[in-house]
Amino acid sequence: MEQIISPAAQVIISLIPIVGICIGGVVIFFALLWIHHETKQRIKSGEKTQSNFNYKAATLLCGLLLTGIGFMLTVFFALFDGISPALLGGLIPLTIGICLLLFYRLYDWKSNDSRSSDN
User: Fold this and answer.
1) What domain range is 11 assigned to?
2) What is d(CA 92, CA 70) in angstroms, rounded to the nearest whole number?
C-alpha cells in the first residue's frame, strides 16, 4: 500500500540536500578565507610560507574513502532500485575513488619531491 505524502512534505524533503550543500559551501569558503588570511600574516611576519601538506597521503585517503563509499552506495542502489538513474549516486564516487587510487599509483612522487625541494 502506497502512502500519499503531502506536497509540503515533498518540498521540505527536497530542500534538505540543497541546504546541506549550501552550508557545506559556506564552511569551505570560510576555511579557505581563514587559510588565506593566515598565509598573508605569515608573509607579513617573514615566516616560511611553504605548506607541509602531505598530498600523497591525502590522495590515498580520499581514494580509499570514495571507493568504499561509492561501492557501498552502488550495491545499495542496485539492490533496492535495480538499474536506474539512482545508481549514479554510487557509481560517481566509486569512479572518482578509483581514479584517485590510480593517480596515487601512477604518479611519479619522487620527481615531484625533488623539484619542490629546489625552490
Assistant:
1) 1-50
2) 7
